[in-house]
TrEMBL record, chain B:
Keyword Transport: yes
Domain (Leucine-binding protein) ranges: 45-405
PANTHER family per the UniProt record, alphabetical: LEUCINE-SPECIFIC-BINDING PROTEIN, PERIPLASMIC BINDING PROTEIN OF ABC TRANSPORTER FOR NATURAL AMINO ACIDS
Similarity section: Belongs to the leucine-binding protein family.
Name of this chain's protein: ABC transporter substrate-binding protein
This protein's UniProt keywords: Amino-acid transport, Signal, Transport
Organism this protein belongs to: Pacificispira spongiicola
Ranges that cross the membrane: none
GO BP of this protein: amino acid transport
Length: 393, 447, 360
């Protein structure tokens, strides 16, 4: 570990902290500065960071990580129903239960590697989803999703006023507390839930960074590079991979728990294979094995899902109102294929473009830009040749 | 080894800064308005949350068409549609309470999470005062819960589960669409007169909450006319091929198959049941029959020829001849070139009912609107005289019993209305066991 | 919920025995299994020869199904005349529609429309071959050396694009594709194999589907077994690097292999359309399942894929029986995955997998 490396890490952490703190302001012009989406950004960021600990370091591609997210959500909501609306016990239980669940599944699935491992994790997640949707309904409330009700016991909390549903809080600070501030001509919403989740993400990111740089992380990278060779040297890799799997399961459970904290509902779809696939896509899209990539990937996918799907034809007409009428109609009819009900198409095209032109994901593109800028300053040919090798690790 | 030089002091400083940022929002309150998203400008924003991807995307598209039509009519564009036949004459076609009606749209993906995220965007970013739409009960209940917490009104779209206005009812949520109990109550007499009272029924049920409530409702009402329930078999959602569930029916001694499926499940299970020759069978000396309790024209289109002669129920059908239905079919048909679906109808009506309630209440405050809707009686919206019951926010109106048409005249003309069952026959007590367990609570204006 | 298990039938027919029920469920399983096997066959072929994880394979199945939809739409293109007397409910003149095929060719036209599903095989083969070749040449080729993760991302992106295009064109609702009139009835399968008549009757089209699948799978095996091309492909599956070193032009063969895999998936889709009304999401519904089939069968093993497809199909059928569900509630929801876990734990490389394939 060089000095330069740790300097880079420092910049990275500061960058993440700043991005989280200024999130509501930076993202406002892009239409993404409202609490729910900001919360989703950081929560799915945690999910993807955790997934990257397993996939980026060990190369084990789990296709069932959504199961841990779902289990985390269910645990958290049950805590809200039974114990208290305070998010601390909920988050703790979410992490514990999902950790235990990951231990169980990891213990079995890690007996195999490669695609066989992927299919084993997928199978466990799909079983969890199918059962949660149907026969486990008494625990999960099936299709509708587990919700908090007025009549729940909540033994630690004082009784709530008649008819109103209690709000999740951190020692009295309501998760949905929002301050509207007018800033630079924009209406900025500073939301408590977002900052709590954001703070947790920063901690999660920092822990992951330390993990990547630790001897344990080195060992995991060795497993990725050549597990056989490692086994020949007498090292048993299973405990290492299992630890990584459990840690990453706990991250997923934490994300699931936070989803429930910001919005106390846990639905079975959270465990479906498409949800597991989503975190895989987030990580690869951003750049597997890089520190910042997964967070970026999570942000991009959630942005498309929430913002692009919301455009409709009349809004597009407004957007392109500066064009002459006939051109406006044409542009709107073409672009409406890609927004609103066509947002999936945009996402699909984006996946293809990025993976074709930026093999290392978004971080690769970012690094190339940085190199390009530096190369431009120094007029230094050597740095360009190394561009492909350097990642933001 | 590790030389990570982000020292403690630096971290502490950062943490302090973060803490200050964190504490700041609690000092300020959200805003000074009396209720969530009180419209202050010249516009009022409604949120249309419909499935645009997934199995119900076509239904969602039809809902969106209906909403756009409703907005036009409210703003005084077009021919006014049902505003001309609606018994309440408060709406003048100049917006609502003098404000122009604007709308935002979103994709529920028929997933609770996505639907809630979409609704939250409408509330938090776009300032919607009312959320409406959806094409499944799971989503409706999830979004209804959210609207209750956020302090906006939820006008449910297509949701048929008893739970929406039963154990999961909410003070801020309202449903115009009928429910599984009503389907059973409306269908039973028709089934009795067509198939007799000595029948053995076999249920195939989609294995999730909506399927269960419908199975319970239909079994109860068919048993009341003397039918015997031979078996209730649960099938996984999206099973695709139902052959393994259909073959046992042949040997079960049952002479009626009841398909508690919707969407693709219904299309596939019905198609395959016909493929397995069930309708050509004679069992117990009677012709074997299939019943699809919840019909939709879009689904009937998906099942094609196979719907012929199959009984079911719907909330509304475009061939109805009352003034309200005719007016709506006319404006919709002229705008889009084909008749509206029942999903489109219920969404259109819900929008007008909301607007009318706001107009009568003189406010967009959810509590004012809830008060105006509770116990509201109206007519001219296609289902005859209708009551929005105060106890559970469910509409009580005529229910249609339909049958797959033998000789359709067009691709839209797939169902014929067999009976328009009067509202009294499908009305139940608010504390009926199938709807028990929930509480409406108090309306929440948010803020 | 305890389902009734007693079977009572009216006096005219003999009571169905346990054997008949068993046989019917086997038939159900074989039918489903045929579809699984055909999709998995192409998938495993692509794995084995090209080393590519193709997440767009389900989409190819879906495209096949839509070949029959497209042909049907084309054949039933209608001449639209506006009625002078009748009006629609919304006040525009009623459209009188007559299919061109019928208007021009009379009975023959009607026959062609009736047989449109089997006839679309003729369209599906060249079309899917073209799709496969274009996909391989234009996209997949550049991903041979890339990590599996990136192959997944790009093919998944492609799958989304394909299904969204279909959705934009044909809508999201399922589109019914009736089987030809002559094949819609029931066939007495029991009598055909020497049992009492009337006990094991099965839809004719499903028997056709099974036979069709058997023929297609047989043809693929024969092709790989008895042609030079097949020999090279099989050698490539066993040891790709060595075959490359021998100086054999592998590129061209890879392209064709991909094309064949696409055709097999497409044909599976075409003929399945009367059983499952095609909709744009069909591919995603089958994607995960076909991966499970491939892995259970053993990565890169063609007989394994077929065996696993049939096995999982049959087990799925049995798990859905009331007698089984009474003992294990919800077993039909998870049986496929449960079997996958058990098999993978018992046999590390699936039923017939070989060492070293797709493990790095």
């Amino acid at each position: 570990m060089t000095v330069e490396q740790s300097k880079k890490d420092k910049i990275m952490v500061i960058g993440v902290v700043l991005a989280v703190l200024l999130g509501p302001i930076i993202l406002n012009p892009f239409g993404a500065g409202y609490p729910d989406l900001l919360q989703k950004f950081v929560i799915y960021g945690i999910f993807a960071i955790g997934f990257n600990i397993l996939f980026g370091l060990t190369g084990y591609l789990s296709f069932g990580h959504a199961a841990f997210l779902g289990v985390g959500s269910y645990s958290a909501v049950w805590m809200f129903k039974l114990l208290s609306m305070n998010i601390v016990p909920a988050i703790i239980l979410a992490m514990v239960i999902s950790g235990l669940f990951a231990l169980l599944i990891g213990f079995i699935a890690l007996r195999r590697s490669g695609i066989y491992f992927s299919i084993l994790t997928l199978a466990f997640a799909q079983m969890s989803y199918n059962l949660a949707y149907s026969v486990l309904t008494p625990i999960t409330n099936g299709e509708t999703g587990l919700q908090i009700l007025h009549g729940d016991p909540r033994v630690l909390d004082a009784a709530v006023e008649d008819g109103a549903l209690p709000v999740t809080n951190l020692f009295g600070l309501n998760m949905n507390a929002t301050a509207d501030v007018s800033l630079l001509g924009m209406d900025i919403q500073f939301n408590a839930g977002y900052y709590i989740c954001g703070l947790i993400m920063i901690v999660a990111f920092y822990i992951a960074l330390r993990l990547f740089r630790s001897p344990f992380g080195m060992m995991l990278k060795a497993i990725k590079t050549n597990q056989n060779r490692l086994n020949f040297t007498g090292v048993n890799s299973r405990p290492y991979t299992l630890t990584a799997f459990v840690i990453s399961g706990i991250y997923a459970g934490l994300a699931g728990g936070l989803l429930a904290c910001t919005d106390p509902l846990a639905g079975a779809e959270r465990m479906q294979w498409t949800a597991s696939g989503e975190v895989v896509l987030m990580t690869i899209l951003g750049g597997a094995g890089t520190m910042l990539g997964p967070i970026l990937g999570a942000g991009v996918i959630k942005y498309f899902e929430n913002i692009f799907s919301a455009y409709n034809e009349s809004e597009l007409m407004d957007v392109f109102s500066f064009l002459p009428h006939w051109l406006q109609e044409l542009v709107v009819s073409v672009s409406s294929l890609f927004v609103g009900e066509g947002w999936h198409l945009t996402l699909g095209v984006l996946f293809m473009l990025i993976v074709i032109f930026l093999p290392g994901g978004l971080m690769e593109g970012f690094n190339r830009l940085v190199k390009l800028a530096r190369g431009g300053y120094r007029k230094d040919g050597a740095s360009a040749s190394a561009a492909g090798k350097v990642t933001a690790e | 080894m590790i030389n990570f030089r982000l020292d403690r002091r630096g971290l502490l400083k950062g943490g302090l800064a973060a803490g200050t940022m964190l504490a700041a929002p609690t000092i300020l309150t959200r805003s000074a308005s009396a209720y969530t998203n009180e419209p202050t400008g010249s516009n009022v924003v409604l949120g249309f949350n419909v499935p645009q991807s997934g199995a119900y995307a076509d239904e969602g598209a039809d809902e969106l068409r209906a909403y756009q039509l409703a907005v036009q009519h409210l703003n005084g564009e077009g021919d006014g549609g049902m505003l001309n036949t609606f018994s309440s004459k408060e709406l003048q076609g100049n917006g609502v309470l003098g404000k122009k009606v604007d709308y935002v749209t979103g994709d529920t993906q028929t997933k609770s999470d996505a639907a809630r995220a979409s609704a939250k965007r409408m509330i938090e970013r776009d300032g919607a005062v009312m959320i409406t739409g959806g094409s499944s009960s799971g989503v409706a209940i999830a979004v209804q819960g959210l609207c209750q917490e956020a302090g906006v009104i939820f006008m449910a779209g297509l949701t048929h589960s008893n739970d929406t206005t039963g154990k999961d009812k909410k003070a801020n949520g309202f449903r115009h669409f009928f429910n599984a109990y009503m389907s059973g109550a409306a269908l039973a007499p028709v089934l009795k007169s067509n198939y007799g009272s000595d029948r053995k029924a076999y249920h195939l049920t989609a294995d999730y909450t909506w399927g269960w409530t419908q199975e319970e409702s239909i079994a109860a009402s068919t048993e009341a006319i003397g039918w015997e329930t031979v078996a209730k078999v649960r099938t996984p959602l999206g099973a695709g091929d139902f052959s393994q569930y259909i073959t046992p029916v042949l040997n079960s001694g049952a002479d009626v198959l009841i398909l508690n499926h919707y969407g693709r499940d219904m299309v596939n299970s019905l198609t395959q049941a016909v493929q397995f020759g069930l309708l050509d069978k004679m069992v117990n000396g009677k012709k074997f029959e299939v019943v699809v309790p919840l019909y939709s024209r879009l689904m009937a289109q998906g099942a094609g020829e196979n719907v012929k002669g199959i009984f079911g129920s719907t909330n509304w059908h475009w061939s109805l001849q009352d003034e309200g239905s005719k007016a709506f079919v006319k404006s919709f048909g002229q705008a889009y070139g084909f008749p509206p679906s029942q999903a489109a109808h219920t969404c259109y009506v819900q929008t007008l009912l909301y607007a009318d309630a706001a107009q009568r209440a003189g406010t967009f405050n959810p509590c004012g609107i809830a008060e105006a809707l509770e116990g509201f009686e109206f007519d001219g919206m296609g289902n005859g005289k209708t009551l929005y019951r105060a106890e559970d926010h469910q509409c009580f109106k005529n229910v249609l019993v339909v049958k797959g048409k033998d000789n359709p005249e067009s691709q839209f003309d797939l169902l014929e209305v067999v009976d328009e069952v009067p509202a009294e026959q499908v009305t139940y007590a608010p504390d009926h066991p199938m709807f028990a367990g929930g509480e409406l609570g108090a309306c929440n204006p948010g803020a | 919920m305890i389902p009734e298990t007693v079977s009572v039938r009216d006096g005219t027919q003999p009571g169905a025995g346990a054997m008949d029920v068993f046989l019917l469920q086997v038939l159900n399983g074989l039918d489903k299994g045929s579809a699984y096997a055909m999709i998995a066959l192409g998938l495993t072929l692509i794995f084995g020869t090209l080393g590519v994880v193709n997440f767009a394979h389900g989409a190819l199945f879906m495209l096949g199904a839509f070949c029959s939809v497209a042909l049907n739409k084309l054949l039933t293109l209608e001449k639209i005349a506006l009625s002078e007397t009748e009006m629609t409910a919304w006040g525009t003149p009623l459209e009188i529609r007559t299919p061109y095929a019928e208007a021009w060719f009379g009975d023959f036209g009607a026959w062609v429309i009736d047989w449109s599903v089997p006839l679309s095989i003729l369209i599906a083969i060249p079309f899917m071959l073209l799709v496969g070749i274009v996909m391989e040449r234009g996209l997949i080729r550049h991903f041979y050396k890339r990590p599996h993760a990136e192959q997944i991302l790009v093919t998944f992106g492609l799958a989304i694009v394909l299904q969204e295009i279909i959705k934009a064109w044909f809508g999201a609702n399922p589109i019914p594709q009736p089987a030809p009139e002559a094949l819609t009835g029931m066939m007495d399968f029991g009598a055909a194999i020497g049992m009492d008549a009337g006990n094991v009757v099965y839809p004719a089209w499903r028997l056709v589907y099974f036979l069709f699948a058997a023929a297609v799978i047989g043809a693929v095996f024969a092709f790989l077994q008895f042609t030079t091309f097949g020999m090279v492909v099989r050698a490539g599956m066993a040891d790709r690097e060595t075959v490359g070193l021998l100086g054999i032009n592998i590129d061209k063969r890879f392209t064709l292999t991909f094309g064949i895999a696409a055709v097999v998936a497409g044909l599976a889709g075409v003929m399945y359309s009367p059983i499952l009304s095609p909709n744009y999401h069909l591919g995603m519904d089958f994607l995960v399942l076909s991966f499970v089939v491939v892995v259970v069968g053993g990565m890169g093993s063609l007989p394994g894929a077929v065996a696993a497809g049939m096995l999982l199909g049959i087990l799925q059928s049995f798990a859905s029986m009331n007698e089984v569900k009474a003992i294990f509630p919800g077993i039909d929801q998870i049986i496929i995955y449960l079997v996958a876990v058990v098999i993978l734990l018992a046999r590390p490389r699936g039923l017939l997998g070989r060492k070293g394939v797709m493990e790095s």
